[in-house]
Amino acid sequence: MSFPCCSISAADLQEVNLQNAAVPRLGQPAIKLEEELKVVRIITPKYSGSTTKEFISSNTWVEIFRRKTQNLRKNFADCYIQAALLDLLTGQAFESLYNEDFDTTDAMLKHLCITFRKQHFQIALIKRVQSGEAFEGCTRDNIVMCFKQLLRELEVHTGGLMALAQATEDMFPLEWKQLRVDSQNLSAEEFQGALLAIADKMSVHRNVSPKLFGKAKKPVDAKVKDTEQKAESAVKSSDKADSGSSRSQHRKVASKKREKALKEEIASLKAKATEAKPKNSAGKD
Fold first, then answer.
1. Cα–chain center distance at 252
2. From CA 18, how far away is CA 1, in angstroms rounded?
3. How far apart are CA 46 and CA 122, in angstroms?
4. pLDDT at position 120 over 70
5. SS3 of 99, please?
6. Domain boundaries of the chain, sorted by first residue
């Protein structure tokens, strides 16, 4: 089956079976194409365009995509690069391209940068840093890497650097004070130096750990609520699985197991919450 290298809709590209398609340039075997595509999928992050979930801007993602697909560009027709691009997009980013016609991969990448503007992403990311949401799920082991990733997107944004500096001070108050850094007049290089100094302290002193704040730090009661919602969902899915074949029965058993595990987790979290309350009140007295 031949694959014409011309203007083609993203919807059509999605339906192409790349593994069986004949390669139109340089006589490369189809298996070689599939190997290259597999490598690209592994080493390139997916991109959704969401300002509430992403940690990289469209510009940064486009740069990464160009770099990771260099071999594909050299050896295969552009229509295959377009297919690889669509395979890595999700959510809003995928929808923005799916029903459009583009002559080249470059046109698709340009469309992404225009649709998901870096300035809008930076503003949303700063708000996530200030609220602590950007650090949700971070641990002692990956907090410095998380800051470096955020710095890559906000280093040329004055407000972004200040937000990162304030977040670092909130998480490492003693270490930040010892560094004597001026948060109001901070360059990207100075902030990176401060991060390295904090990383060194953490490698030497096990008691140096980030104190998560805001949305990154969920209280016990909030965890109980989240777990209860999961349990509710498990009960509903188990009810739906009641009617049906053996496959439905299998899902029902799995749902019951999840429900039991979640109930045990709720009981454990509530017990912790009960134990914590007397301690807190004793501290206030």
1. 31
2. 10
3. 19
4. yes
5. coil
6. 8-116, 120-204, 218-284
